[in-house]
């Protein structure tokens, strides 16, 4: 099994080289975000205001990590079901978001916008939250601290394991008739 090592942030060339079914190890900075944070980010976009971080070419991990135990950077950090963010994804893609990490299906509208904006969707393995947390080497709260573990955080990850589920051409690993 080939595993591609990917340096973050993403760029069009890297995104274009990835295909549904590819196994990857991601290294670099990613941002966390779930429903409430996405809603606030989209409100800022709607109001024409700047986001609290530069989203261009970035990757958002749909996660609300558990609190860290003493001596650990972060607690278990497993993926959240991605379709819950679909209502907020398109404005973020239009603002330059290149990658998303989560689990589960995405809407056809999100997939169409991924193709249009050359973005990619990775799946992290559900049930592997403790293993995933070992790939996270640092964290910093960026905004929305009042959301607790669901605040937007900037994480530095090394060899974060993921699978390309939907590539920038719309090929979808979940679409069984094509695989």
**Widest sheet: strand ordering:** 2-3-4-5-7
Query: Oligomeric status of the shown chains?
Result: single chain
Number of domains: 1
**How many whole angstroms does the radius of gyration measure?**
15 Å
Under the CATH scheme, the architecture is Alpha-Beta Barrel
Classification by helices and strands: alpha/beta
Average pLDDT reading: 94
- What is the count of β-strands? 7
Q: What is the straight-line distance between the termini?
A: 17 Å
Shape verdict: globular
Give the proportion of residues in helices.
10-25%
CATH topology: fumarase
Q: Quick one: CATH superfamily?
A: Fe-S hydro-lyase, tartrate dehydratase beta-type, catalytic domain
Q: Give the biggest sheet.
A: 5 strands, mixed, barrel
What is the string of helix and strand elements? EHEHEHEHEHEE
The tally of helices reads: 5
Using the coordinates above, name the CATH class. Answer: Alpha Beta
Topology:
Blueprint: E1 3-7, H1 12-17, E2 23-32, H2 35-46, E3 59-61, H3 86-94, E4 99-102, H4 108-117, E5 120-123, H5 129-133, E6 136-143, E7 152-166
Parallel strand pairs: 1-2, 2-3, 3-4, 4-5
Antiparallel strand pairs: 2-7, 5-7, 6-7
Helix pairs in contact: 2-3, 3-4
Tell me what you see in this structure.
The chain is an alpha/beta fold and 179 residues long. The protein has a single domain (3-172), classed as fumarase, CATH 3.20.130.10. 23% of the residues lie in helices and 27% in strands. The protein has helices spanning 12-17, 35-46, 86-94, 108-117, 129-133, and strands spanning 3-7, 23-32, 59-61, 99-102, 120-123, 136-143, 152-166. Strands 2-3-4-5-7 form a five-stranded mixed β-barrel.
